[in-house]
Amino acid sequence: MANIKTLDQYELELRTALKNTMSRESMVPAGRVLVGIRRNHFIQAETGNPDYQGRSYAYRNWHSEFMKDLYPDEVERKSVSARLRYAVGVALREMLTPDEIELAELRPISPKERIANNNRERAGAYKLLTEKIKSEDDVLELVSLISRVASNIDDKDLQHKLIKHMSNLDKLIK
Fold first, then answer.
1. pLDDT in tens for each of the 174 residues of the chain?
2. In the 8-state DSSP scheme, what is residue 130?
3. 43 forms bridges with which residues in the sheet?
4. Distances in Å between the alpha carbon of 90 and those of 5, 6, 13, 33, 112?
5. In the prediction, which pLDDT does 26 show?
6. What is the 3-state secondary structure (H, E, C) of 68-92?
7. In whole angstroms, what is the distance from residue 24 CA to residue 81 CA?
8. CB–CB of 38/52 below 8 Å?
9. pLDDT at residue 91, rounded to an integer
10. What is the H or E stretch that residue 45 is in?
11. CA separation for the pair 144, 140 (Å, rounded)
12. Which residues contact 104 (CB under 8 A, 6 or more apart)?
């Protein structure tokens, strides 16, 4: 059996890993420590599986107290916590097998990859709105973008107005 660290040993390792970590990327070692803590010290009562998502009351309580002790200033604590959430997401996908990721009900794509994909999508949308459309694929992408925008409109009257204006689009193009 592997030698499992005590929670106190993990806490000391986590305190060390969190020193001088300003960027999200520099937090990944701390994220790895938290994954180890979740794997070895916080088990879901319902399933008996590690609490990789960090949702159990016991984990949340421990984590909250640990962070309050380490970062008494709430603003700093929130900032570090946000970077740490990102780092845990990256570390989980580094450390777990695809089967463990599925069992833990995690998305297979890491936060880093999701951010890169979102940036590519935004860049593509910006390009569609600022450059000449030159192909049918561009037209289809524009229609998809308009559809996504329309689905984000909360007000049904505004949705209907958008549809009305879209149906009159041929009249606007000269």
1. 567 899 999 999 999 888 867 777 788 999 999 999 999 999 998 889 999 999 999 999 999 999 999 999 999 999 999 999 989 999 999 999 999 999 988 888 877 787 777 788 888 777 777 888 888 888 888 778 777 777 888 888 888 888 777 777 666 565
2. H
3. 50
4. 22, 23, 18, 12, 7
5. 82
6. HHHCCCHHHHHHHHHHHHHHHHHHH
7. 10
8. yes
9. 93
10. none
11. 6
12. 49, 50, 52, 53, 92, 96
Helices (H) and strands (E) in the chain, counts: 9, 0
CA 102 – CA 99 distance, rounded (Å): 5
Backbone angles phi, psi at 24, to 5 degrees: -60, -40
User: Which residue from 111, 59, 109, 119 is spatially nearest to 85, judged by alpha carbons?
Assistant: 111
The type of residue at 87 is: A
22: its two tokens: 């300003």
* Lookup: tokens for 55: 């949702």
The structure tokens listed for 122 are 């935004």
Contact at 8 Å (CB) between 141 and 127? no
Cα 76 to Cα 28, 55, 81, 115, 135, distances in angstroms: 18, 22, 8, 23, 49
Phi, psi angles (nearest 5°) of residue 103: -60, -35
81-90 as b/e: b if 16+ CB within 10 A: eebbebbbbb
